[in-house]
Amino acid sequence: MPYTKDIVEELNILVRYNLSTTQEGIKVHKTASPETIAATHRLFAKGLVSQDDGGYLTNLGIETAKQAQTVLDILTPA
Does pTM surpass 0.85? Predict the structure, then answer.
């Protein structure tokens, strides 16, 4: 199954988190793009973030964000 636009948006949110600490979250403001806001809501519904506007990564979110960052690191040209 190929990545959908929604999945790509969700991955883009996940890779914004600082994975070196669990004490740092993100806040998606009302002025963000509708796609970003919707992606953050979906991540909350899936249990990957603590609040519907971002917040902190859950345990599942941390693991998913680590994998998303690994894929991005591998695919990004040096």
Answer: yes
| pLDDT single digits (tens) 33-70 | 999 999 999 999 999 999 999 999 999 999 999 999 99
53 with 28: CB under 8 angstroms?
A: yes
What value does the CA radius of gyration of the chain take, rounded to a whole number of Å?
A: 12
- C-alpha to C-alpha distance for 63 and 29, rounded to whole angstroms: 24
Q: Is 3 exposed, middle or buried (0-12, 13-18, 19+ CB in 10 A)?
A: exposed
Measure the CA–CA gap between 21 and 39, rounded to whole angstroms.
22
d(CA 53, CA 73): 26
> What ranges in 1-78 are assigned the alpha helix state H?
5-14, 34-45, 59-75
